[in-house]
Write a structure and sequence with these properties.
This protein has 5 helices and 6 strands; from the N terminus they run E-H-E-H-H-E-H-E-H-E-E. The protein has 116 residues and is of the alpha/beta class. It has a 6-stranded mixed beta sheet with strand order 2-1-3-4-5-6, sandwiched between helices.
Length: 116
Amino acid sequence: MKFLADEGVDRSIVNALRELHHNVYYVIEETRSLSDDELLAIAANEKRILLTRDKDFGELVYRLGKPHTGVILLRLEGYTTEIRSQMVSMIIEKHQHELIDAFTVVQPKVVRIRKK
């Protein structure tokens, strides 16, 4: 699968997904300080699922109706980076076919997947 990881996403998550042979564009490695609109547009244009910790993407997708290929909002504060990367990897492997064109919220013990 193809992902775009926002600046707030742990490098360990990016590395774990790459180890699973996913194509991950990590914003920190390429460019910085892109607006949320720009990130969502890049992800949509390149058919990438956006990985983020920024709740503002919910407003862009639901209130403003911005196009997207999928958004995964990570709400895993309080866990170590290692645990977060393991959880995200397992969730993506388990739900990979459901994540396309969906807005997904990942919280401890809860994964909510909502299609467009």
